[in-house]
# Entry
Amino acid sequence: MINIILSSFLVTLIYTPFGIFFYKGRTIKAYSLQLTFGLIIISFIALTLNFFVPLNELNNSILILLSLIIIIIRKKDFFNKNFVYFCLFSTALIFLLITKSNVYRPDAGLYHLPYINLLNEEKIIIGSSNLHFRFGHTSIIQYLSAVTNNLIFSINGIVFAGALVASAVIINFSSNLFHYLKKKKLNFHFFFLFSIFIFIIYKMNRYGEYGNDAPAHFMMFLLVSEIIKNFEKKNNISKNIPNYLTLAMFVIMNKVILITSILFPLILFTRKNFLNCLINKKTIFLIIFLLFWSIKNILVSGCILYPIKITCPNNIIWSDLENTKKIALENEVWAKGWPEFRNTKTGINKKQFSSNFFWLKTWLNNHFLKILKILSPYILVLTIILIFFRSKNDEYKKNKYFIILVSISLFGILIWFFKVPNFRYGYSNIVILISLIFASIGYKSCNNNYNKFKYILLVLIIIFSFKNLNRIIFNKTNYFNYPWPKFYSFEADNKP
# Structure
């Protein structure tokens, strides 16, 4: 376990400095954002490298040297106690998440891990989605996983990506929440964060359930949080728009169904700040990143956004458009409840099932009930807080962006509902909508309960810690590569 603790500390130490190009500051909150943007920059470097070389241990180790150079050049930013505290907090979170965990099964074995292996062994392979169609579905998080296989962490480095994203967001949210409580300033942003934080502790506390989905949802939560925070502080919004656009694009590169995330930063554009954002180093980085990602997608699958047929040019010789349509339909009908429906033997095919809301009854009797089962306790807790924490807020001011934020969330939910209404694909939009409503009511009527909220936050952190410590302490089963996450096989002994 000492090895996991040391590796968790080192991966935070090595990756955080890359984010200083996007976000500067020496507070724990600032370092959480530096780690977030650091992960995005490292993913871009990995993507670029793979056009020319495989992401093997030796090539990946270049990042360690680059990180050391940044730390030496910017030593005042990283030789301080706040950075040490941040690294320790991140180490604790990563350790709690990954120790004795599983990877996301069965998807990890079906395509996450095989694709990471492909990246580690080969430079980009044209038409690799023809080896297996799921290689067309891969996310940018696979590049972050692949590039962390280096001379320090070796193959175990591939498990850090999701935990690093979770760590950065959880530290950011908790430090913001405690800052507001310390200042006795419970604004709209506080209540929004508080609601999201409850959901994270309740439903996003197990690394084995992350896969490609949770990192995208974590980033989505952070994106909306940062936009609301800047509204509250009235910061230089023009300056921060490229940051928000970068976060949104990283969300989409992980989960295409969250494409409406791009609308959140777009609402900030005005004629005054448009040119400033356009002629900007961060915007240029984002454009190049998008260009490389699109080229990679076309080389792998023949589509810019696989398997959306409209994004697939007709004259690419290694793409199979008919098969692409088939895969798109397959994804859609499975999310709408085809596995449950096909057992009824009605003679209805997949295309008929997916059209004209024929699927709705099956979905309501299956997936919808599962979603209700997940969301009901969460909504109940939020409702209890609103009822029992009521107080008068003399400083209440209506959030003028509330309607716009709610509208974007609703739009995202509608796209999810019509295309792939499986909870794991689109829950960030649902939780954001619930949290916006909670924040609007809470800010208006629960504004003076500083100590009560502080105690709840402490209890939530204890719950998160004990849920993971319970697995670490009481799971005595030994297995291959113990106590790292099981990623070598689907079997309990994890033997390759």
User: Anything to note?
Assistant: The chain has a mean pLDDT of 91.
